[in-house]
Amino acid sequence: MRVQTAINLTIKILNTNMKFFILSIITLFLFSNAILAQNDAKAAIIKYMEANQHYLKKEYNEAGNKYKAAFELNKANKAAAFNSACSYALANDIDNAVAMAQIAYEAGNYGFAEETDFDSIRSDERFAAIEAIATADIAATKEKGTDPVVVEPPIELLKMGNPRGLIVAVHGYGGAPETFQEPFKFAVDKYNVVLLCLRGSEINGKDAFHWNFSREEYMRIDSQINDAIKKYDVDPSRVILTGFSQGGFICYNFGLQKLDKFVGLMPIAGNFSNKNSVVEDASKGAKIYSLVGKSDKPSYLSSAEEAKKLLVKQEIEMKIVKYDGGHIIPDNHEELFSEAIEWFLPK
């Protein structure tokens, strides 16, 4: 099982330990929006965290049971079903492992082929069939490409002579541009901006993508931004980059390498890495508005503070804003995003 800690979003960690983190994106997001009953949401979180502890102690049968219970309380948390299957496989409980693998697949999690926890049951015909179908689904999704989702403001605003801006939004692990666009759509009309929601090149399930941080991926991101600026008649001085979690890391990492391209960077729950984030030319500097959840892991706040110390020395303006909640898009996102956009954009 790829343990999804999201403590340190370096390339190495993101390529190895990934699974637990889906809980905070999916479960807590649903909880904050009252989609789940409050008691069920809390119970699901507790069961999941208990399962994590059993797994780390190599108490795999208990972990499988707890992950299964967490999934039954919150069917949106497909990681719980997947992790239950992983745990049962490690416990050599093949029947339960296969049953939960089927449930995980139906929930939209396709990452069986790369998961070493299943090595002991790959010879089981039932599991092999699930893995084959999931692998085929990943291949079919890849054929669809990595096109972004675009939302344009009304043409009337352009006819009035108002300069168009661009918000480039980068989703987190397990996200998709189709859903990630929602918190930013209010800004399209309010600020006359095109919303460009990018899509991660890696696929881990149905409508679930992530980023590999490769040079090729960054070149693709750069190209899609350039294409959008030309196609939608965007004023190059009004381009903003934002992202959540993995996307927040990209916001720091890619954005600081391309400061001349952006008027503002708005990482949300993103880790700054001094090792991986290189400021290309501070004299061209964008402003940075970093959003961090008060209940998120302390490393997010400490990394933002580290970024501010470094960037202020290079005369780059940076604000750190702490919002209520953990590793989620803040409930008052419209208020906070508006404050950032109005700080970024030229008057």
Identify the CATH homologous superfamily of the largest domain.
Alpha/Beta hydrolase fold, catalytic domain
CATH fold label of the largest domain: Rossmann fold
Uncertain runs are 2-36
Query: Could you tell me the strand content as a percent range?
Result: 5-15%
Series of secondary-structure elements, N-terminal to C-terminal: HHHHHHHEHEHHEEEHEHEEHEH
> What fraction, in percent, of the residue positions are helical?
40-55%
CATH architecture descriptor name of the largest domain: 3-Layer(aba) Sandwich
CATH class of the largest domain: Alpha Beta
Q: From the helix content, strand content and strand pairing, which structural class follows?
A: alpha/beta
Helical run tally: 14
Could you explain how this protein is built, in words?
This protein is α/β, with parallel strands linked by helices. The protein has two domains: 11-142, Tetratricopeptide repeat domain (Serine Threonine Protein Phosphatase 5, Tetratricopeptide repeat); 149-344, 3-Layer(aba) Sandwich (Rossmann fold), CATH 3.40.50.1820. The protein is built from 14 helices and nine strands. The protein has helices at 11-14, 22-32, 38-56, 60-73, 78-90, 94-107, 125-142, 155-159, 177-180, 186-190, 215-231, 246-257, 298-313, 333-344, and strands spanning 149-151, 164-170, 193-198, 202-205, 208-210, 234-244, 264-268, 287-293, 318-323. A seven-stranded mixed beta sheet has the order 1-3-2-6-7-8-9, with helices on both faces. The chain has a two-stranded antiparallel sheet with strand order 4-5. The longest helix is centred in the N-terminal third of the chain and has 19 residues, at 38-56. The protein is globular and about 65 Å long.
